[in-house]
Each structure stands twice: as C-alpha cells, then as structure tokens.
Write a structure and sequence with these properties.
The structure is a homodimer. The first copy, chain A, is α+β, with helices and mostly antiparallel strands. Chain A is 23% helix and 44% strand. The first copy, chain A, has a single domain, classed as 4-Layer Sandwich (S-adenosylmethionine decarboxylase), CATH 3.60.90.10. Chain A has a 6-stranded antiparallel β-sheet. In chain A, helix 2 (33-45) runs antiparallel to helix 3. Strand 1 (2-3) of chain A pairs parallel with strand 3 of chain B, so a sheet runs across the interface.
C-alpha cells in the first residue's frame, strides 16, 4: 500500500472515462513489457493535469500479451495487449478537469504504431 | 514488473467491461485502505473464472479516498473512493467467458454498505 500527502487529491467525484481499441499496432510494442510501460508512462507524463503515482506491468510470458496499469492522482490508465491480434485495449479514467482524452488516445495509438477505433468517452459521477 | 507462466492467459481480445457508481457506502470502508483492498480481493476471489495476479492500493491520506487496482488474468478491476461523498466508482473489465458482472457489482455494493447505480456493461473487442 502506498500513502501520499493529502494534496495529491482534492477532486470531486466526477470525471471522464475514455475506452478505446487500438488496432494494427507494432507487435513488439505489445509484448516488450519495459518498452510498453515506458511508452505509456512517457505519454501520460507529457500531459499537464496527469500525475502518475504508480505503474505496474504484468507480462503473460515471452512474446505474449501484457497488462500495464497506472495509478493516477486523477484515477487510472491501463492497457491490455494482444500481440497475436496486433491489438490493445486502452482505458483512461480521470477525475478533475482533465479533458484531453482524445488527443492522448491519438498519442497512444501513434506510439504503438496503431489506429484507435471504438473510442468512447463516458461521463462518470453525479 | 511481474511475469507469469504462459497458461495464465489465453483469452481472445474480447470481453465485458462493467462500470458502476456505488452510493451511500459505509464511510470507513472508503478510507480504510487495508479493509477496502481486502474486501475487494475477497469478493473477486469468490468468483470462479477470476484470477487475481496483483493488488495495489493507494491511500490519498488519513480519512481520505483511495484507489485500489487489481490486475487480473482476465484484465482488471478497480475502485476509486470518495469518503466525503460516501461514494465509489467501480470497474470490472474481463476478457474471456466471465459474465457474472452484475452479481459481482451487487456483492461489492453490499460489502461496502452501498447501492449501485449507473451500472453499465460495455462489450469490448472485435
């Protein structure tokens, strides 16, 4: 368990959750765990308004898919990859005022060499 | 980074993602990090077809909200809590044949003393 100072979070219980499928990715980027996590972290770090608190990546085996999940001060981001299908699922859930979800999805798709489809943004909260 | 044996994952790139808002929760359950993570893990462990690979919980301070994220062999589950509003957001994304999302949301709501609203299940993948 990780505990941070109170100022890390003072968001209201509302935000935006974007989900996407990214097709035709670079296959290596979907199984090289260090590279995939590094790419995800680097992209999110480039956005003001996103603060990464933790990154965890689980590889399902050499050449197999992986899951990378970032805990954010704003909520979370995740990828689940399927190298055999050149595909990954992406999630970005942010509380607070961050609203650059579509630009960020485009950056993810470009970095993984793919194309984002079925991009859907859901407003969560009261 | 965690690496597991190949047999941990042989799912197709499709699944169900359920999101929910849980209102009127027991306030303590929303800020006691050990208890919240333990409850989440215990509930998911009770479901055949769900395999937890990792659990990470971040507390935003004493009496403040928390984020708990589980990496699953099937994808992920998460909660983001707001004790001041007696509210939490819940996500369960599973690839494979698991389809007991609504029952699981009910179990989560009951354990946290709340009521699930805005429950939405999205089919992801091709």
């Amino acid at each position: 368990m990780i505990q941070s100072k109170d100022e890390d979070k003072n968001y209201k219980a509302q935000g935006l959750h974007t989900i996407a499928t990214i097709l035709q990715c670079n296959k290596e980027m979907l199984y090289l765990a260090y590279e995939a996590e590094h790419a995800l972290v680097s992209i999110l770090n480039d956005y003001p308004g996103i603060k990464i608190l933790d990154a965890r990546t689980h590889s399902f085996g050499i050449g197999q898919g992986l899951t990378s999940i970032l805990t954010l001060a704003e909520s979370h981001a995740s990828i689940h990859t399927y190298p055999e299908d050149y595909l990954m699922f992406f999630d970005l859930f942010t509380c607070g005022s961050f609203d650059m979800h579509e630009a960020l999805v485009s950056d993810i798709a470009r970095t993984f060499g793919g194309v984002a489809v079925n991009v859907q943004t859901i407003r969560r909260g009261l």
